[in-house]
Design a protein that fits this description.
Number of helices: 3
Organism: Helicobacter cappadocius
Keywords: Membrane, Transmembrane, Transmembrane helix
Number of strands: 0
Pfam family, one: FixS
Number of domains: 2
InterPro entries: Cyt_oxidase_maturation_cbb3 (IPR004714)
Distance between the termini: 62 Å
Protein name: Cbb3-type cytochrome oxidase assembly protein CcoS
Oligomer: single chain
Largest sheet: none
């Protein structure tokens, strides 16, 4: 094969891959993958035990984060 064709194909694929990566990172940053409706519907159908467990887990994570911050100071 011709070397110039390979170079063009390589450069084109790198550019397309880079654009895809930028689009994905933009989607993450702007919250395109957040599904608030699913989360809110999940809360409607959760039982009391599930909600209490989620609250305990959130409190535990806050305590861990707080203790890490105190250790860093």
């Amino acid at each position: 094969m011709n070397t110039s064709i390979l170079i063009v194909m390589l450069v084109t694929s790198i550019i397309i891959g880079f654009l895809g990566l930028l689009a994905f990172l933009w989607g993450l940053k702007t919250g395109q993958f957040d599904d608030e409706k699913k989360m809110m519907e999940g809360v409607l159908f959760d039982g009391v035990d599930d909600l209490n467990e989620a609250a305990k887990k959130e409190q535990k994570q806050k305590n861990i984060k707080r203790s890490k911050n105190e250790q860093n100071l």
